[in-house]
Amino acid sequence: MAGAAQVATVEGRRNVVAFAPLVAVCLAAAAIGVFGVSRFELTSGPLGFVFFSFFFDTFAPLSLAIVYGVARLSCVAVFEPGRARLLRVATAPLAIGAFLAITLYPTFGGLVARAAFFSGGMAFVQGQAMLTAYPLGIAVATLLFGLMLGAGIVAIRLRLAISPADIGFGILRFASLVFAGCVLVAPGWTGVALYGDWPVWPLSGGEAATLAAAGFAAFLPHALIVRARG
Q: Can you give the pLDDT at residue 131?
């Protein structure tokens, strides 16, 4: 009985680590709609300088990626077992802080959005179709995003063990995050206004539900990979 209970506890923790960030994304999208969050409210607050940005106006749905990353790091810190859990009191804030810095400094998007804009923009200027340039920019941005997320998890766990299988799953994780980015920003560059005029204007109830559904669909593949491999 004790062994079965221990297995159930371990499986429960794995489920939380894998799927709680997905829930956080959906709740964040719902909160944006319920509280009428738009560019005006954000730029009027104490962190207005972060959101007074071309990159927020252009890539606002990617704010859900930041929520997902912070939730992922937090869940690893709180719920994953480990021999050095007490040290996570120090390593987790550092990991989350570094992740927020690369995604929000000096303004929304940080180096991640700027890498996407530069690489995708250069590809477009050199004659690539938008259908090619946009995913290329997202892939470059995902490389930075994924590296910082992975480095943060390593810092929290205070261990690094890489096997051939880990390399394969790492590639799958990268591909799943590229997919997530494409899903979130596709309405913007295809001209399909699934999120209305957000962030210029608040989301309606239906638009908030659409954003939540897009966030769920975007990050579900990554969550399933995390559940399978950790």
A: 80
Both tokens of 182, joined, read 């494409």
Low-confidence ranges of the chain (pLDDT < 50): none
The predicted structure's pLDDT at residue 133: 86
Contact assessment for residue 177 and residue 25, using Cβ atoms and an 8 Å cutoff: no
Which residue range is the domain that position 90 belongs to? 2-229
Q: Which two tokens stand for residue 201?
A: 């204007």
Place of tokens 């700027």: 114
- Contact 187/218 with Cβ under 8 angstroms? no
| Count of domains observed in the chain | 1
- Asked whether 40 and 197 are in contact (CB, 8 A), the reply is no
Residue 194: what pLDDT?
Answer: 84
Count how many Cα atoms sit within 13 Å of the Cα of residue 112 in the half-sphere of its side chain: 31
